[in-house]
Design goal:
OB fold (Dihydrolipoamide Acetyltransferase, E2P); two-stranded antiparallel sheet; 184 residues; 7 strands; alpha+beta; 6 helices; five-stranded mixed barrel
Length: 184
């Protein structure tokens, strides 16, 4: 019942939570990784970061190097987590799909990505689905409004409990990568 109440609250409050942010439909060019999309905006392509979540890296880059040093996991294990996450997002989308995007397209993060909430034509929240399916985690310092962040956290806890996605066979590595403590 609590989950239903939170879902209803979220559904009713979403337009209020995102007031002032632009909402438009754009064509997906590619899935870059488990939390980054490339979309066509006008004549240019932009990198969009699924706001409020983090997924493991699937290529060697500065963030991967930081994660490698921090976790002490092997490159192979860490890259495999990233590949699993990226492959899952690719299962949810196909290049050419129309995405409804909510966010300030003129604002980018330190990696040059625009933080957004992204929805498929069937109104599936990609941000929420990646967490719910266990292939991404909620960022502790996230720009999401509190009710939405709490909904994402609830989905993350359920994914961990149900051993979904990375919380299944990759549970220990996912816990080290994410900094999450997960009880067996």
């Amino acid at each position: 019942m609590r989950t239903l109440s939170l879902a209803l609250l979220l559904l009713l409050s979403t337009p209020i939570l995102l007031a002032g942010e632009a909402e438009n439909s754009y064509t997906l060019v590619a899935v870059e990784d488990g939390d980054t999309l490339i979309v066509k905006i006008g004549t240019e392509e932009k990198r969009l970061q699924l706001s409020g979540i983090d997924a493991p890296e699937d290529v060697v880059n500065p963030k991967f190097t930081k994660d490698l040093d921090r976790t002490k996991l092997s490159s192979e294990v860490l890259l495999n987590l990233g590949k699993l996450s990226t492959d899952h997002l690719k299962q949810l989308l196909t290049p050419g799909d129309q995405l409804r995007i909510m966010g300030d397209l003129d604002n980018s993060d330190r990696y040059g990505r625009v933080p957004v909430l992204a929805y498929t034509a069937s109104n599936l929240s990609l941000n929420e689905q990646m967490v719910s399916d266990g292939y991404a985690v909620v960022l502790s310092r996230t720009p999401l409004q509190e009710p939405l962040k709490q909904q994402f956290i609830l989905h993350q806890q359920q994914a961990q409990k149900q051993q979904s996605g990375l919380w299944g066979e990759q549970r220990n590595a996912a816990a080290l990568w994410s900094g999450q403590t997960v009880s067996d």
